[in-house]
Write a structure and sequence with these properties.
The protein is of the alpha+beta class. It has 18 helices and 53 strands. A 9-stranded antiparallel sheet has the order 32-33-34-35-44-41-40-37-38. The chain has a 6-stranded antiparallel sheet with strand order 3-2-5-10-7-8. It starts with 14 loop residues before the first helix and ends with a strand. It binds zinc ion.
Length: 1013
Amino acid sequence: MSLCIPLQEKTVHEQLPLMDHRTQRILAQRVLPACHTPVAEARVSWWPVTGPDGVVGQGEPVAWPSAREADHTPIQLPHPWGPPWGTTWFQLEVEVPEHAPGELELHVDLGWSDHSPGFQAEALARDESGKVIKGLHPLNHWLPIREGTGTHVFHIEAASNPLLLDVPPFIPTADGDRATAGTDPLYIFRSAVLVRVDHEVRGLAADLDVLSGLANTLPADSPRRWRLATTMQRALDALDTEDVAATASAARAILLPALELPADADAMSATAVGHAHIDSAWLWPVRETRRKVARTLANVINLLEAGHRFHFALPAAQHVAWLAEDHPELFERVKNWVADGAIVPVGGMWVESDAVLPSGESLCRQFSEGQKLFEEVFGQRCSGMWLPDSFGYSGALPQIAKLSGAEWFLTQKLSWNQVNSFPHNSFQWEGIDGTRIFTHFPAVDTYASNLSPEQLDHARHSYKEKGYGNSTLVPFGYGDGGGGPTREMLARADRMGDVCGAPRLRQGTPDDFFKEAEAELKDPEVWVGEFYLELHRATSTSQCSTKRGNRRNEGLLREAETWWTIAAVRGLGDYPWEELQDCWQHVLLGQFHDILPGTSIAWVHQQMTKAHERISAELNALARQARLLLAGSGDQDISFNASPVNRDGVPAMGAGTARRTNPTRLTEDGDGWQMASDHIELTFDGSGRLRSFLDLSSGREIIPEGVDAGILHLVPDFPNMWDAWDTERFQRKAPAVINTFDEVTAVDDGLVTSVAFRSSTAKLTWTLSEDGREVRVDVDVDWHEHDHMLKLVLPLNVHTSEAAFETQFGHIRRAIHENTGWDAARFEVSVHRWMHLGEMGFGVAIANDASYGCDVLRDAHPSGGTYATVRPSLIRGPRFPDPETDQGEHRFSFSLRPCTGIAEAVETGYRRNMDLFPVTGDPVEPLVTAEGALVEAIKLAEDRSGDVIVRLYESLGSASLARITVPLDFTVEAVSILEEPQPDTVITSCGSGEWSWAMRPFQIVTLRLTKGI
Ligand SMILES: [Zn+2]
């Protein structure tokens, strides 16, 4: 008996792959090549822009007027071109012969690989007059030939950007730094060929593409799949592969009924929205993004002007501003299509920022600056928050977005979770204050769909609200590095509109979709709190200089705005509008979701560090100027306090005499040191370890007995992929402990412990605060490590299963145990200025000045109970995309304070981040004082009326009656973040310049103070 199964007994289903193989081969090797017939080759000349170091073709971008005047030299193809990051202008001349039949195109092959558009060479094409025609990239490399015979001339601005995310990805590269990138040409300009287009063959290719894709999404025993497969076989039987052009119509006629069979009555509804995710910087510098925006919008407009009907979602006001500056003519065409409704501004933000790390005020300004520009240039604001690619989303966002005019929120990033599948696609997202915003996660799980049947089928399968809703949004178009929709995608959309076996696809706007989705989900589910992304957890730590610059300038913006507002109101000087706006816009750009998280190439972070230094210098000068104006000519030693909390006797947002109320006593007893004030007492052993931290008022010992504190952990940190982005849970298992110090010395009132390890050094300086209630530790690190993370180790004798972490305008409580998969996956988290671990009536606040990442370990104490070890993440050394990430000297500062509750933690956070500035002059009365709420920003109104804007928030998570005292001649009303009346919040005058209103927990209230009414 044979073990072989007789042929006739093999399942008939095995015929399906055979049929599909036939379809795919004929499509790829016969039909697609027959779409175009070569007619003539173009003559090519070039002008490689020479770099400052003399490398031909490695020069920085040159504007069109200069390129037009440049001498172009004829070249023969194929021809090498393009050192990394260079610019080469090509002039293509093609003769269109008389009586050339049909539609003609010019196909350009700059030498790219047929993948990764936006990650390798790209170009922008202009006609002879300089008018922008369209962009060129590996999967969209054709140019239209307008009617008429004779010579047609194109000017191609080609960018030889290196491919940094190659296969395999995440290999360290020197190409991300202008100084270390090579100088050899990366590309070979292969061809520029005039071709005649056969629309019928192109139509056949699209038919086969969609029908074969559709068939492959259906079950093998589905009659529809078999019908599609056999129909395609009959069509291919009718196709002469030796003469595709002559027989394409016959084949299409056989396919037509399969495309005309309508979708099921209850088929899923998919709204296609054209899009091009353009990272404002990532594996390319900011200046390249400016060109990506132009190429992408040129592509969009080329399609729209050719008669294609679709909608294109356009986020990021900064990109719009760049386009207006760089390409006024193209920008006018964009404006026309926005007025038409085809291009739809979305998001309302200055850039698609990181949504975890920026301060609350920064996120407000992302919206206010963004919406302001969209309104100025397009006459319309954005109706929703479009943020598909950030690495987690703060629970403060629903409130901030709604107060900024957003009615909905969209992202897809949570589909990247490593462990847990997010349970919803359409739902209400409830923020920390209770604000709810209707939210959609596109079920296609990408922001760059190609509209293939397979992707739409994925959306149908993954959609979570089945039975309650039936609609999803599908963003389509090449993204990350831009590119946008193509005519091939639109050809798919045309065929997928209403076809049996697929979701019913229509072109629409985001608003179209959200209206439909909200209408069908009568009682949507609710997700409360942050969207924690179970991936990219190291983005709270990587590129610490970029993060430090951001935190520093957020504080300095507050300084400058606070003092200039008071100075302007008191008639002491003119508010520096342009300077402040410029600083804000650069800080906002630096919060883009690959810059602030530290995931861009070296070039980007080097520029950002310099930008932050420039902004700091400018803001320091501005703030100092205002402080001197306010201080006047008096001779007292006063200090300015821009924070919203009184400090060392200096009033909040005022200036007065600071008092050091509690000097430090430092003593050495032979075995170690004691550092004490009237409130706390620290004991260090001879090796520099913190052995005891006594809170004298409560008598509580904060350091667990026998546990090393004030030490460092050097954690191996080589993630599975995504080096700058990720840190893995397994890396928590075996930290290298640095628990003895080489040197322990007393310096003034402080104690310095220093240690050398591997190739690096660290120095910890311990001091007590002026009021004697806080311990400060400054950690100076000279870091020369890779693939490791350095953590400060702070074990706390606090028994708790959760901790409070500051976020924008409030805080969030997260479990620190690992009861569930969700808890365990949240092993490295973000924190703003402070965190707090507490028991009833006692706790410890830990504030930082610029480190955003941390984890908390729980351990059982031998004597019973548990303690928690807080480990702020200081510094890493990933090698991709910047092989020199974080190398060099850095300083991190922390404050530890025993306290009874959140209020002191909030105060400690401000003290750690806002310095007192000493000046000689007279004390300065605050312009406003507040109770029951904290002032987060004070500035002049954007309408330049002279009104004052004061933004406050409830910081404790407890409803309060807020009061503000303002000058007697001011009236007060509540406004939105866009500074428009907010009638929901009633502000009541209590007389004598005092106004009050009710605050719900974590509520943000913005007030407009108007003089003289
Ligand atoms: Zn992105």
